Amino acid sequence: MAAAAAAAAVGGSQSPQAELPAPGLALDKAATAAHLKAALSRPDNRAGAEELQALLERVLSAERPLAAAADGEEAAAAGGGGGPGAAEEEALEWCKCLLAGGGGYDEFCAAVRAYDPAALCGLVWTANFVAYRCRTCGISPCMSLCAECFHQGDHTGHDFNMFRSQAGGACDCGDSNVMRESGFCKRHQIKSSSNIPCVPKDLLMMSEFVLPRFIFCLIQYLREGYNEPADVPSEKDLNKVLQLLEPQISFLEDLTKMGGAMRSVLTQVLTNQQNYKDLTSGLGENACAKKSHEKYLIALKSSGLTYPEDKLVYGIQEPSAGTSTLAVQGFAGATGTLGQLDSSDEEDQDGSQGLGKRKRVKLSSNTKDQSIMDVLKHKSFLEELLFWTIKYEFPQKMVTFLLNMLPDQEYKVAFTKTFVQHYAFIMKTLKKSHESDTMSNRIVHISVQLFSNEELARQVTEECQLLDIMVTVLLYMMESCLIKSELQDEENSLHVVVNCGEALLKNNTYWPLVSDFINILSHQSVAKRFLEDHGLLVTWMNFVSFFQGMNLNKRELNEHVEFESQTYYAAFAAELEACAQPMWGLLSHCKVRETQEYTRNVVRYCLEALQDWFDAINFVDEPAPNQVTFHLPLHRYYAMFLSKAVKCQELDLDSVLPDQEMLMKLMIHPLQIQASLAEIHSNMWVRNGLQIKGQAMTYVQSHFCNSMIDPDIYLLQVCASRLDPDYFISSVFERFKVVDLLTMASQHQNTVLDAEHERSMLEGALTFLVILLSLRLHLGMSDDEILRAEMVAQLCMNDRTHSSLLDLIPENPNPKSGIIPGSYSFESVLSAVADFKAPVFEPGGSMQQGMYTPKAEVWDQEFDPVMVILRTVYRRDVQSAMDRYTAFLKQSGKFPGNPWPPYKKRTPLHPSYKGLMRLLHCKTLHIVLFTLLYKILMDHQNLSEHVLCMVLYLIELGLENSAEEESDEEASVCGPERCHDSWFPGSNLVSNMRHFINYVRVRVPETAPEVKRDSPASTSSDSLGSLQNSGTAQVFSLVAERRKKFQEIINRSSSEANQVVRPKTSNKWSAPGSAPQLTTAILEIKESILSLLIKLHHKLSGKQNSYYPPWLDDIEILIQPEIPKYSHGDGITAVERILLKAALQSRMNKRIIEEICRKVTPPVPPKKVTAAEKKTLDKEERRQKARERQQKLLAEFASRQKSFMETAMDVDSPENDIPMEITAAEPQISEAVYDCVICGQSGPSSEDRPTGLVVLLQASSVLGQCRDNIEPKKLPITEEEQIYPWDTCAAVHDVRLSLLQRYFKDSSCLLAVSIGWEGGVYVQTCGHTLHIDCHKSYMESLRNDQVLQGFSVDKGEFTCPLCRQFANSVLPCYPGSNVENNLWQRPSNKNIQDLIKEVEELQGRPGAFPVSISSETNLSKEMESVMKDIKNTTQKKYRDYSKTPGSPDNDFLFMYSVARTNLELELIHRGGNLCSGGASTAGKRSCLNQLFHVLALHMRLYSIDSEYNPWRKLTQLVEEVNSQLGNEEQQPEVPILYHDVTSLLLIQILMMPQPLRKDHFTCIVKVLFTLLYTQALVALSVKCSEEDRSAWKHTGALKKNTCDAEKSHEVLLSFVISELSKGKLYHEEGTQECAMVSPIAWSPESMEKYLQDFCLPFLRITSLLQHHLFGEDLPSCQEEEEFSVLSSCLGLLPTFYQTEHPFISASCLDWPVPAFDIISQWCFEINGFTERHAEQGKALLIQESRWKLPHLLQLPENYNTIFQYYHRKTCSVCTKVPKDPAVCLVCGTFVCLKGLCCKQQSYCECVLHSQNCGAGTGIFLLINASVIIIIRGHRFCLWGSVYLDAHGEEDRDLRRGKPLYICKERYKVLEQQWISHTFDHINKRWGPHYNGL
After folding, report:
1. Which among 1853, 1816, 1855, 1846 is positioned nearest to 1834, based on CA atoms?
2. Tell me, what's the pLDDT at 1382?
3. What is the value of pTM for the model shown?
4. In Å, how far are 853, 936, 1838, 1852 from 850, measured between CA atoms?
């Protein structure tokens, strides 16, 4: 053996061990270990040490095992037959022995644990572990706790959640750097280091010697196993090595779990540099060590890393012991390695060249990076271990070991430094990895433990240049996928951007590094260093600029793009994660005035980077047309830091703003995005595919908006507030391409926009201006106001659940920002603005969640359409908000019509941004507004109500924000003569409103109606002076206006500013020659804005002179202007509000308004309507009319449909009534008429063309779940609670049947009971009928049309063609009449004896179909086929109970049991009794009548041998009693008293020819009642005690001879007792039996009650049966009189019976033969049986007849109790913890969902269980998802959850992890659907499960 060989190798040493035999026995190992320990304890332990070294050398020799493992063939040889694993195990055994120093290893472990100062938990977990996070206790957002610590701590009322770990993590309990001490659990609260005794020296002495060798051995294995081939090593090889090392690493992991004492030894070993040097340097004579060292060097080299001293001598002393371990300082020979680096990097790039279509760009790297990127020097085991961990791509075991050590503080620091040192190497490995996802998770698993700790992060930042390393590594990583930017100037651009198509971005490979960076920036001390370090800021801006302008979109103008690239996901994710989140992190530290300097730094470098960018893309002043990028991170950094500076740091805005020229450049690209958004929504980018719409949506979507659109709009607001307003406004209209539209002429030529896009682009431009001018998010709103505004906007669009609100409200993404979701301010704002609507349950099964809806006052005062427009992802949400607003106004009676969006007052502007309001007071805007008002008034084309709405909004904004310049204006009014050259005199809107404009010169196409051939030349001059040289008059040269301003700004210094007009840089807008001739025309206008508004009022109201200044009647209005009447309304209200505000602002305006109103305005002059326009107007009118017609039709159709639904349909609830069209009321019709829902014909069902009912057959075990106790069973939540099924109805019936079968003849047993408690067939119908041949063709068509159907046509499934209810068979209707019933129901006067005879004769006739069976009709075929369907509905095991398989008795039993099942279930649906009476809904949709015909026809085929017909035993006295007991060997028949009476009833009735006569029915019931009553008496006699029996026997005997003795229960009881006493039934009572007997004394009342209760179930079923067969209504009654009412209804009570004295059940008896004779005959049978089997005889007599209603298991209040018990519970079948555990809510069985482990014959466990427990119906709670899944046969559906959180929401998959509580209403609904078998009808989303659940 290998061990023996090893021992021989050490023979040279002089130790006593040399002579030992091969140390294979544990005893010898222990002895050796003890000896060594003793030797080492001596003061002079050199000899012992050498001896130990030799032993270890021998045991842990690294050469053998791996060589053996690597090549399978040699394994056997090398291992000496022990296989590759034997030697390692041997080695591990040795190590354990040596560590324990001769003692037992387990005792050693326990001893070490005793010295554990467990201050930290530090439990490490891997992915998918369930952990907790408490935001109340966490200092770091990454804090997490294991379940144990969480439940041990006190977190009541905290904001916590449970989560499934994605990457793994560790428990922070006890670490006060990461969480508050108040949250520590009981174990880790005590700083217990004080009272832990000191570790005895000798305990761990051996460990200190053994472990270094052991770890070195591990490292050698790792070196050996890593073969660096030319390409990347395959996963397989690496995994092979790791599997071999599994035991070693596990051993180390176990050591870490021994607690602090062992951890500190390990730390010493791992960080001791001397140890490492001695063992690994590869010097010395050991060849193996040399080889290993070479391998290590090769691995380093191939990783693109250098070993700092690449010389052959390794013994050189380190430069100085004090320097940091970071390789940057030990930077010796690195410069020589640059060449080598490049080559390795090149391969890396060519490998993936094919990814992006465009050529990659390679940047030159500087040497500073090189030191970080390429030098690694290992000085300790820890460092090399981490190196190999990375090399092997972070094997889970290694990661867990390294993390388990973290509670040791010294180790934590050393490990963090090592991790940082390897950071660049980690990035390189990650980039190459094939499994980057898994690897990313493992990296973060480690780094989040290190960098969440502020103290540690600060230390590493100071000592190891952590920030430099991180930024450099990120930069370096992105540099590998850069391409040339094509933005702006394609040819000459010098800018490079990341290529979003590369795997690096597409797969998010960069996220571990970015998330570390974000994590360390959350620490103030680290962020400050970053913000102070100018070099770092420059590098970082450099990094950010890689993303500036990425993913450029070019508009496709000709054909649709072939391939829609989906790179935009990558682009948005990259900007959010790599740029925005670090930005928010930095911003969170710039909150106070002291941090001004930081902001100045960032802004300075940001502007420099922007300037570089503009230069690189060669940008002058015009953006390139038809291209847009949504990614401008530099702009956004700049904007957000500006906003912070003004809001929190009191910085003067102008001190951080650049010059005007830069501002102009800055606004171009964000403005381009806003215009492009409008273009995209106008469908101008439609040829670019759907992805461009996706980008537009993502840009405004809640997770991105505050890092994208908000900073963009803010930046534009800043630019607008500092630039010339005319320039800005004209830029906007030019960007939106609507300049040409802004003309007074009715026709115009737009060179850059198609006519169909004009309207929506104009709406876009105006909406943008409104948003720009009204939004205050960064211009003065406080955080709480912002939160409130966001919340109101979201709630106005739709009612929201709490979680979707949290998701939709853009929170500042940095977790420390204060508005944490779920934090105090969120909840308080929510309760202020919204009302909670509790979850509702619609019978349709669509379950609502708890919703929040805006309060009325919010709609009234806070609804802000601007905010809604800004925040909507889908345009329909704006409409939805307006519809809800309209509904609110109608409901509250504030406004009946269609309102316009309300005008909302704004928060005051922060003084720094006052300049923004100049936009409202610039002539350019006023001209635009004037023009648009005029065009709307004149009905020019392409204008909409939306345009008008925005125009009025802008005017109102201007009035609200006007400077008070009224006073001096009054003085300077000299009429319009003064200002010849300009449209408007000044720039103030208030005064410009009243300014009349008389004539305007316009350029129009020659075809326009305005061109009058004889236009008077004179008019132009006196109105507008010389138009040629006045630029201002032609607002339509907006472009020229803008250029001029631009020029002025650029050439502030030069004097000839106005002459130089710079040529347009790129004239790509219009092709020359495309425009028709334009000519100049002059229009007479003579309007002012005020007069236009008043005319508009007339136009909107449709009345002349509709406007009357309100202040003329009520002067108060001017004093107190805030009038609620104006706050909601339509356009008319808006105009009135504006005029009122205008009048308020100036007396002049007021006067002019009054003047205009005094002049009776002539009607608006009719326009000259051209033929073309007339056509369009007609078209519009025609369209309008068509629309109205359509609406009317639709409304009519809807109402018809509704009435149809009310009468014909009931899919949703089992409650609604459905009129059955089966029975017609008029008695003169002789046959029932049916409507076929397919062909629509009505007619009777006939032999050759039968009609059938649409039915659903399903197997059901609901009945079997009834229990006999009222307490519902609870779901087990501890090991002690278990549910045993032996008290269920099914179990009891099973036991009874098998007991009977043991002692009696099989065929007789099968008639004595019913089956179908489990797996019974339930038949239900929707009540619709169809011809059977129609149905067949319908099925054919379904079969051919296999579109997405939730059902399988091959199994006969379909949906009812009329009501779409699920069905799977058709039940033929028996041809015959309704009226027969009436004939049969007439009471006959025959006495009971005659009827009994008739019944017997009828049963004796051989069974036959109505027509002889030889000539098979269609009907009989159908009857047979449906019978086959019924049989196939349930599994064989639920049909076959006979001992001889396939016996006819079996079928017989099955058939009458189907009837029993359906009757019993209907009884349960009625609540278990018939007190409610009535026809009941079930009756209307019941198919029992038809079902009975089918069953009866089939049962008649089996005639019961008249010898055995129980009817004889019931109605005749048998003479030769003794013959029965004659032959002993043959099993006897079942005694009649053991028969189940209800089963007998069904057998008797189904054996009769149908339709049955009423008097026969009554006769059968009467006879059976006598048997039932006798059974009740017998059971009573068995239940009571001996004394009671003798007393009753005595009292009854006295009355025996009275006249009605046969109807007195006392007499009968005494007779029964005396008869049964002859046998042994009563004798066997030992004392133990007495305990069972109820101690209560039996009073006559309690006896009567017992007898009634015993008989009631039979009476109920019988009454139901009578109701179905003869159509009689059931009377309703009180519960206590149910017995008497039912018995009289059944005709058991004699009619003359008086109701005065208390009711006695015995009075219903009507004995067919003398009572005492028949009773004694029945008792004789019993006595015969009890002679031999008294016990069983007795058990069979006591039948439990009072079953309670079935219930699902009761669930605990809190979901956590279920989750904690079940999610770690092992499966009883496979003994593993299932991945998807589930529990059955019917019986509490624990199953593996989808688990292959528990699969049997290709059925997974849930499907199997659903068949065994529910006969194909299973209701399972999925533990890990909190949802309920329903399995029905071969389909399944997700039902929903019965557990909701505090806000009434489900939490599917426990994603949010908030505490969940049971929702009793939902659970009731679930139970109701289960009991009523309506899962198939109510739940809509079914899918096949292919037995895989």
Report:
1. 1816
2. 44
3. 0.82
4. 10, 46, 19, 15
